[in-house]
Every structure is written in C-alpha cells, then in structure tokens.
Amino acid sequence: MTPLQRAFHDVLADLGEGEVVSYGEVARRAGRHGAARSVGAFLAEHGSDLPWWRVVRADGSLAAHKVAEQQRRLRAEGVEVTGGRVTDAMPR
DNA sequence: TATATGACGTTGC
DNA sequence: AGCAACGCCATAT
To answer: For labelling alongside A42, which of A18, A36, A52, A63 has CA 20 to 30 A away?
Structure first.
C-alpha cells in the first residue's frame, strides 16, 4: 500500500450513509487535487471493500459501469437518483 | 526514460 | 443538454 492508496482508502472509509462525493472531491480530501482519475484506478481494485457507490462524477452522473447497481444502492440510502444522475445531494 | 491507458474534470461547440 | 477535445494524475509495460 502506497501512502496515496492509504489516503484514498481513509477518505472513502469515512463516507457516511447517503453522503455522496465526486472523484475529484475524494482526490482533494486526500490531498491530491486533480488526481480524480487515479481515484477511479484505485477503486477499480480496492473498491470491492469500500463504499464505492457513494462516489459519482463531478456532474452527478454515476460511474458508467454498474449504473443500475450503484443507483440501487444509493436509493437504498435515501439518495435521489434520476436518469443516472444524483439529483438531491450536490457533491463537490 | 517513453508510451499507453482509464470508475475523471473542464471547456468549447 | 450532449459530445468531442484536451488536460491531468498515477500505473503498468
């Protein structure tokens, strides 16, 4: 585990129920402003044991892989999702 | 070192 | 609003 991965992990692990953030936001919270793509790369392997469904794109759209799955989980936490986008919680 | 790749972001059309 | 071009960061070859 590189310090960066540890950082990303911590940020993601701190996300609470119904708390939605963007990839860029995660990068910033981890002290790596602009490293949004890296967050995605990280989630690609260690995402299985983290609340990956609480991470969406900057415009609120869901990650283009398991859209249905992610939408299901978000709604289960009370997050409003319409047309593949989060509409109530405004990330950043 | 150099190049290619991708769960992204911003801007311009 | 939707899409294409770039730009960006970290990794894998």
So the answer is: A18
* A91 occurs within a structural domain: no
- Side-chain-side CA neighbours of residue A62 (13 Å): 23
pLDDT tens-digit profile of A29-55? 999 999 999 999 999 999 999 999 999
Nearest nucleotide, CA A32 to C1': C9
Single pTM value for the model = 0.92
Residue A35 lies in a domain: yes
Q: Do A11 and A4 touch, CB atoms closer than 8 A?
A: no
The candidate with the shortest Cα–Cα distance to A54, out of A41, A42, A71, A68, is A71
Q: Is the CB of A37 within 7 Å of strand C?
A: yes
CATH number for the domain that contains residue A12: 1.10.10.10
